[in-house]
């Protein structure tokens, strides 16, 4: 969080406020960078809000326009902005939503992220990104760059990413992304090749906890590849495979049941938009009665309403028990720590 100004301080007495000084330096650097690159400064929302002297998040949307014209954000605008941000220490969330950033604009963003390792959330959604942008980000966020604090990377609704983009996200060194929560929904990832790229690359090392790949035409074989990869990713907590252009039937059902039973670390499944029959739903219901680690299992409501309700009720009960159990574990750890301190 950015620092708060001292109580009782006036605007003219901000000489000792690090947040105020950092904001002033950022604004000055941004003006200089735009002059050097001959770009028009964007009318950014830089109001810290009451009780704060600087900002910790910056969100750019199609409504972010130039000062004197209604020219939308273009790839060229990214470089001066990232140059100005490079010496600003308080940024924790940077978002580009629905702007024409393209691979060209993603390159300076990736360079900034590699240097500014305190950033926690990066969202580049619906920005016309492709495999080249994924390559830049993969190199910036690889585990060969220690000290990264980025938790969430959202690349949703960039349909040109495709299978090649997924492969490019994996650093050349053969490592994995230093990201816990990854969003690749509606990114044009398709078939067995797409599922294999996800399974063998992004789930290679135990770091990823949330994988959101909704709206990709993986098909049955692609989803099976993802489920096989899940078995090697012992940190995965949440998996969203909704709208994957498949139905849950014989072969896929077999792999899903294996994953449910074996992967005790995976607690949340989202399978909305993948049709299943009532007999499949009933089989899943029976199996999950003994799988208390499954606390969220979302399916389409096209099945029998009673079965749908029973699955929902079971998940509610599992979740309550899971929360209670994990609270006890936390209390136990605190008790041990206190006991050691007393000795």
Automatic annotation (TrEMBL):
InterPro entries: Leu-rich_rpt, LRR_dom_sf, RanGap
Basic residues bias: start-end ranges: 325-343
GO biological process, one term: nucleocytoplasmic transport
Domain of life: Eukaryota
MF (Gene Ontology): GTPase activator activity; small GTPase binding
Region (Disordered): 322-343
GO CC aspect terms: cytosol; nucleus; perinuclear region of cytoplasm
Name of the molecule in the record: Uncharacterized protein
Lineage of source species: Eukaryota, Haptista, Haptophyta, Prymnesiophyceae, Prymnesiales
